[in-house]
Structures are given as C-alpha cells and as structure tokens.
Description:
It contains no helices and 11 strands. The chain is mainly β. The termini are far apart.
Amino acid sequence: QVLLVESGGGLVQPGGSLRLSCAASRSIFTISFMGWYRQAPEKQRELVAHITSGGITKYAESVKGRFTISRDSAKNTVYLQMNSLKPEDTAVYYCNAEGSYWGQGTQVTVSS
C-alpha cells in the first residue's frame, strides 16, 4: 500500500506556471510507476503524464512540450511542472501509484 498527498494547485492566468507535488509514503523506487491524471467537470479522468521506476516518462499529446514530470527520490516525491497553462488545463489533478492508489486531488484553475 502507498499513501499519496498532493499539493501545489491553485489559480493561475493563461500562460502561467504551476508545480504540483505528490509525496509518497514509501520509497518511489519501490513503486513501478507513478502518474498524474486530471478530471475536468463532466469529463472522464485522463492520464497527463507518468514516470516509471526506471525513469521512463510518457505524456498526453495535449501537454507535450508544456508539462514535465520528474521525481526526487530523497523526498519520495514526484512533481508535475506545468508551463504555458491554458484554460483547458483546468481540472482536478490526481496523483496515482501503480494504477491502484490515488491521492486526494488538487484543483488547478487557469483563468484570467
């Protein structure tokens, strides 16, 4: 089992940046993969980015070149750096581990 706690959401203007953090309750090297998902109102939850224990990353087409997933093993934390944010990035962002464990979610709102 792993507990996940997200932080870093908020309100930002279009073109701005935010960094989300996801702290895990155990070493992230023992977790085969971790990812960020998002769910906008009346839409299905979708994968934004994920990173494997070996460091391989994958991104949704809609965020490629704007978002970066990374990790800090010393802090057991995975990050999502979001740049050039657009209104359509507005959603609740969730951290996930191994497809089974979810954080509580953090709201990201992109609006002028």
